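Now for one record:
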Amino acid sequence: MKTGILGKIPAILIAVILAVSAMVITNGPVYGATGSYSIHGSYANPFNGVLLSESIDFSLYKIGEFHGSTFEREEALSNVGVDIPVFTKKGDRDEDEWTEEWLECANSFAAQLPDGYDPVSTAQSDAASPLSSFDFTGLEGAALYLLTGSSQIVPDAQDADKSRRWTPRPMFIMILNDDAVISLKFTSVPVTKRYAVMKSWKDAEHEDKRPENIEIEALYDGKVDSSISPIKLPDGDNEWYFEFETEKVNKEWTFREVVSDAIKYNYEISVSEPRESTGKEGDPVLLTTITNTYSRPTLEITKKLPDYVDHGNGAAAVLGFEITGFTLVDGEEEAVYHVTVGMAMGADETEKTIEVKDIPRGLTRVVVEESYSGNYAPVGERTKTATFVPAEEGPGKYTVEFENKYDNPSFTGGVINRYSKVDTGAYEVIEQINLLAGR
């Protein structure tokens, strides 16, 4: 599982997920207690003067768990290339802006849920009451959930051609130390026969990472429609755009990107809610935009060396690390990334951090092994799994820390490597100087 450290949770998060009793507002890390909890949800009916006369079917998906101050995403969701930001407010964004970003993130995650990933619970709302409600019970605490709901068509009283589809907006719900009470927001779009999907790229200076083509699946009522799918872009006229007409209008159409390796390791995926637009021939369409943003995390390796020993020549202590990234391939974890880096620490440095850029996305774990430390014995394990730290925006980072103490050992094997700093900010081996004599 990918792990992460959670930041502060301000009052804004209450507005984001609207779970007024499940939030912990704190100036420190999040600590959730395990246990059995419930979610009570409701929505005003009529909503904006519209009467939703039928019940709504809700699905609740478990996204991950909190363990002390860390968050672990479910392993089956490692290929969902949507970054869940840290729970803090950033910059000049007000509560409405931050709420909207969280809801957009939840929509993207819901759109990219893989086939076969089942909800942990389902519920159905009351029908046609002034305040419709629903409940989930028996939920694990210290967890993050995703809520989705079925859509409903509301006919126009005067003009059937102006019927609109109302859909609960997907939302994240965090269960920590109490039950959650939530209130829903809805989207409303006209019922139409014409749909469009567009691919957008945000990868300036990294266009070489972009695949030549991508595939998008069209889902009707949550199931892939083989009469439309796969949508291959760019299409014949080299446009990252596709539109179609269908007689299937009673249920909701959604779209998701097929995640190739090029997308998985390099790009974040965001999927917009459908919006009214104009098609190629000037006809109205419902347009969904899928945006790929080039976004790779970094790895910070921190070394503590409290007792550097100067042997009279002022030579730096040279330390080497092997970095291996793992991912799931056909259900089995395999190594798909490997790099060697190093750092040099002098007499005036008791602690140093190097940053290794461009770690692939979507890894189940990143393992760092201290492969060379000279006469400095490791404190604790020589091989460690890095912790994933989410960011307020962007891909986040991995962190790992090592400590060494002077040991003056003798070696029976091994090499001394000479390193050179490279563009990533780390060091690479450029020469193996000689074999060590000793242990």
Observations:
- The helical segments are 12-17, 95-111, 261-266.
- The mean pLDDT is 81.
- The two ends are 37 Å apart (CA to CA).
